Amino acid sequence: MASGGLQLLGFVLAFLGWIGIIISTAMPQWKMASYAGDNIVTAQALYEGLWMSCAMQSTGQIQCKVYDSLLKLEGNLQATRALMVAAILLGLVGLFVAVTGMKCMKCMEDDQVKKMRMAVFGGVIFIISGLAALVATSWYGNRVARAFYDPFTPVNTRFEFGSALFIGWAASSLAILGGSFLCCSCPRRETSYPPARGYPKNASSTGKDYV
Predict the structure, then answer these.
(1) Low-confidence ranges of the chain (pLDDT < 50)
(2) Does the keyword Cell membrane apply (predicted)?
(3) Where along the chain do its domains lie?
(4) What torsion do the CA atoms of 108, 114, 116, 121 make, to the nearest 10 degrees?
(5) Fewer CB under 10 Å: which end of the chain, C or N?
(6) What does the alpha-carbon distance between residue 97 and residue 128 come to, in Å, rounded to a whole number?
(7) One-character DSSP codes across 122-188
(8) Looking at the domain that runs over 4-27+75-184, which CATH code has it been given?
């Protein structure tokens, strides 16, 4: 029962992490314009994401523009896109595999060993998915931080971490944690030892030996 609860907890955490990765990928707030140290009061906030750049006016109106050409994008941005899309696809595969191996499902009930292996395999896929998203968000955040502290970067072109990065970090952590719980949910096999053989006791001879 304990392993079943741990398995269910791992699946829920991994599923929530996968949903968070999708939300983070779609959000345009990967980095937001910073006005730290600048006395200019601006009437709009600028955001940039993986797929579009947006400007939010003081009235609350948001205008977004999708990036026109894939070939004109920076190589780092293209790599971040690829990692996030790969994380989403891996999470989708891990979702189906883990569902097949769940104890509460009736699939593969005849072979419990294969069923447990499917759950573990799904957990491994979720871990890889979370690692891919973690690398993508950390890499993007590192580039934002380096550009922010670069003295040659103009003040009006500096950016800070957006909310999508924080969601991506939290989601990748949930996916890795949930996948780890799925991998640890299978009970260990108990080693069966052959029963110890009893040795016959030497019967005490009551008779006398005659030559």
Answers:
(1) 1, 39, 190-193, 203, 205, 208, 210-211
(2) yes
(3) 4-27+75-184
(4) -110
(5) C
(6) 14
(7) HHHHHHHHHHHHHHHHHHHHHHHHHHHH-TTS-GGG-EEE-HHHHHHHHHHHHHHHHHHHHHH-SPP
(8) 1.20.140.150
